[in-house]
């Protein structure tokens, strides 16, 4: 590879012919390969840093600023209110506090219900796909396929499939003799079954692929050694595969918790947050308060609370799994 | 080093438990895989099938998998609706996806190159700040970015979708990993030939990075094509919407016209599914890689 490319470069000739052919090496002042212009790396970085600064660094600071003001998009005055937005969110009895914590509860329920399934089922699927058989690339692609659809398509599709009166699912249940229509999208606990089930259908292939890559990087010699020691299939899974997969499991766990805590589209499209806002997630509520009612200071405060909580959860995940290692 | 071929086949064919599976085991394995495939694919087939049905057949019981009277009525209804310019949405999504992907590839590769291959004051700090933002949930930037985009006059324009997302750290991080794995001899050879850094970047580094660039490009395009929350709130005019934001409006307008809604879903999903069928190796390699690096 190296020689091919060097030859390739050589074939095109020297990139700056004058420098090498006509001048002695000592005379290369500005073009000296060992003293590049000091600003070269910064010039390469500039376009990205401009965008990064504008849409990540500035917002990171101005978001805090907003959260300390009564920042309404349509009001000329945005008075400084200190920590009042945060205090409001912790005032028992205040409507916004009640709604916010109800939405946090919805997000919490979704995380608790979805994460264990999104961790275990894709792992089982990956173990299945890690065997040697014809067509494994094909099946891997099939299981991954729903992930390439956006949540909008997924939401529209399943809203139709899970429709209480005319949906395919209830249609088949009726064929099987379930006479009473299941209110998949309108009543608890069915709404949670739907939201979790649809999310599983949509993203299990993604997690499987990450697991599969981890499985394929496990050193074959470890399995051979375990076999020599008389370990059966389950023993090998428990004592070789899972310990070797720990970093990948940690990665999938962190990613899945974050993705589930960010849940928005499924609720927005499937249940609309119903029944009575029970499935209105935190992100959905933040978007409503900030981008529909334009109480952006309050919404910013809510985002920071949620972010802080997520960072704490991620750190705990990390510490917990790290500790088990030692 | 990872050549193009090796990179694409990162998820390589290898068995960890080849022995000890009899004929029965193999049959069980295939049975399980087929059942799962049906569960995964049936909803998609149902979507396609419904899009060619009459509204009556769409809700008929028992369910009809093959449209009894195939019709393009669903598609015609949508294409005739000025409030739901499906082709326009499709065009907007393509435009946004292509521009956004090109911007990400250009800025992320240019930024990753010095971070991976040069020594300069501030390198560590810049890299640390960029990586740190990988761990900050994106919704934190939602409110301030709405104001910034408004301040730039970008609300209800493609720029609101093309530019802010390019600030993500993933592309830089992803390409840094690859650039750092290239042998130093390549650059040294070019430097001795008198090439400057820009020429090395364009003529040596980028041509060697086609596979990771393709992977990053596909993942970026996919994310842009499917982005939902942000376009839902920064776009207003029906003619400006992208497919995901537009499809969400169909829910209310066509609450019971399932063939029309499924026609919209099919228009949004069939192109990406076909694209995926051709490039699935790169997409899956990219996803797998992100896990191994984490």
From TrEMBL, chain A:
Pfam families, sorted: BPD_transp_1 (PF00528)
GO cellular component: plasma membrane
SUPFAM superfamilies from the UniProt entry: MetI-like (SSF161098)
Domain ABC transmembrane type-1: from-to ranges: 104-317
Location of the region described as Disordered in the Swiss-Prot/TrEMBL record: 1-33
Cited InterPro entries: ABC_transporter_permease (IPR051393), MetI-like (IPR000515), MetI-like_sf (IPR035906)
Main localization of the protein described in the UniProt heading: membrane
GO biological process: transmembrane transport
Location of this chain's protein in the cell: Cell membrane
Membrane topology reported for the UniProt record: Multi-pass membrane protein
Classification via PROSITE patterns: ABC_TM1 (PS50928)
Gene3D superfamilies, per database record: MetI-like
Spans traversing the lipid bilayer: 38-66, 109-129, 141-161, 181-202, 248-269, 301-321
Keywords (A to Z) from UniProt: Cell membrane, Membrane, Transmembrane, Transmembrane helix, Transport
Domain of life per record: Bacteria
KW Membrane (keyword) present: yes
Family label: Belongs to the binding-protein-dependent transport system permease family.
Stated name of the protein: Carbohydrate ABC transporter membrane protein 1, CUT1 family (TC 3.A.1.1.-)
Native species: Krasilnikoviella flava
UniProtKB/TrEMBL annotation, chain B:
Keywords tagged on the record: Cell membrane, Membrane, Transmembrane, Transmembrane helix, Transport
Coiled coil (UniProt feature): none
Keyword Phosphoprotein among UniProt keywords: no
GO cellular component: plasma membrane
Subcellular location: Cell membrane
Top-level taxon of the source organism: Bacteria
Transmembrane portions of the chain: 22-46, 94-113, 125-146, 158-180, 200-225, 258-279
Record-annotated ABC transmembrane type-1 domain positions: 90-279
Signal peptide: none
Family: Belongs to the binding-protein-dependent transport system permease family.
Protein's recorded name: Carbohydrate ABC transporter membrane protein 2, CUT1 family (TC 3.A.1.1.-)
Organism: Krasilnikoviella flava
């Amino acid at each position: 590879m190296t020689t091919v490319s060097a030859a390739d470069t050589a074939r095109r000739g020297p990139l700056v012919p004058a420098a090498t052919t006509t001048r002695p090496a000592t005379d290369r002042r500005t073009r000296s390969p060992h003293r590049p212009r000091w600003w070269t790396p910064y010039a390469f970085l500039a376009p990205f840093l401009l965008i990064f600064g504008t849409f990540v660094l500035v917002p990171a600071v101005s978001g805090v600023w907003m959260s300390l003001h009564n920042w309404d998009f349509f009001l000329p005055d945005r008075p400084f209110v200190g920590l009042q937005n945060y205090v409001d969110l912790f005032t028992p009895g205040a409507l916004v506090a009640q709604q916010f914590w109800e939405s946090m509860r919805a997000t919490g329920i979704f995380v608790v219900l979805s994460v264990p399934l999104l961790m275990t089922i894709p792992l089982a699927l990956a173990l299945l796909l890690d065997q040697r058989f014809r067509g494994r690339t094909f099946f891997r692609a099939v299981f991954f396929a729903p992930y390439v659809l956006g949540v909008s398509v997924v939401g529209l599709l399943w809203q139709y499939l899970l429709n209480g009166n005319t949906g395919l699912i209830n249609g088949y249940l009726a064929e099987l003799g379930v006479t009473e229509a299941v209110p998949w999208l309108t009543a608890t606990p069915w709404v949670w079954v739907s939201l979790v089930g649809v999310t599983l259908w949509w993203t299990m292939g993604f997690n499987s692929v990450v697991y599969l890559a981890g499985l394929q990087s496990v050193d074959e010699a470890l399995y051979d050694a375990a076999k020599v020691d008389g370990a059966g299939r389950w023993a090998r899974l428990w004592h070789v595969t899972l310990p070797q997969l720990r970093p990948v499991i940690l990665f999938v766990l962190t990613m899945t918790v974050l993705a589930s805590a960010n849940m928005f589209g499924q609720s927005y499209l499937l249940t609309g947050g119903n029944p009575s806002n029970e499935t209105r997630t935190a992100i959905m509520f933040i978007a409503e308060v900030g981008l529909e009612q334009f109480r952006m200071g309050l919404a910013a405060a809510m985002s920071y609370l949620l972010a802080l909580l997520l960072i704490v959860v991620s750190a705990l995940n990390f510490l917990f799994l790290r500790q088990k290692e030692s | 080093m990872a050549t193009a071929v090796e990179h694409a086949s990162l998820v390589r064919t290898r068995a960890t438990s080849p022995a000890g599976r009899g004929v029965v085991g193999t049959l069980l394995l295939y049975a399980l895989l087929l059942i799962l495939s049906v569960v995964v694919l049936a909803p998609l087939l149902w979507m396609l099938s419904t899009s060619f049905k009459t509204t009556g057949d769409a809700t008929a019981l028992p369910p009809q998998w093959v449209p009894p009277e195939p019709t393009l009525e669903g598609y015609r209804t949508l294409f005739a609706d000025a409030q739901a310019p499906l082709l326009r949405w499709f065009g907007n999504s393509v435009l946004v996806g292509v521009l956004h992907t090109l911007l990400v590839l250009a800025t992320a590769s240019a930024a990753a190159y010095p971070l991976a291959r040069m020594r300069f004051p501030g390198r560590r700090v810049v890299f640390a700040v960029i990586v740190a933002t990988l761990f900050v949930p994106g919704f934190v930037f939602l409110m301030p970015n709405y104001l910034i985009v408004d301040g730039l006059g970008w609300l209800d324009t493609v720029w609101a979708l093309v530019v802010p997302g390019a600030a993500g750290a993933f592309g830089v991080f992803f390409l840094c990993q690859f650039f750092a794995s290239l042998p130093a001899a390549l650059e040294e050879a070019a430097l001795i030939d008198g090439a400057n850094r820009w020429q090395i970047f364009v003529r040596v580094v980028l041509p060697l990075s086609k596979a990771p660039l393709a992977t990053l490009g596909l993942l970026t395009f996919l994310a842009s094509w499917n982005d939902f929350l942000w376009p839902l709130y920064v776009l207003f005019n029906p003619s400006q919407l992208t497919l995901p934001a537009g499809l969400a409006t169909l829910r209310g307008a066509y609450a019971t016209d399932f063939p029309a809604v499924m026609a919209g879903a099919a228009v949004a999903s069939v192109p990406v599914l076909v694209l995926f069928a051709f490039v699935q190796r790169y997409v899956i390699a990219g996803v797998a890689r992100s896990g191994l690096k984490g």
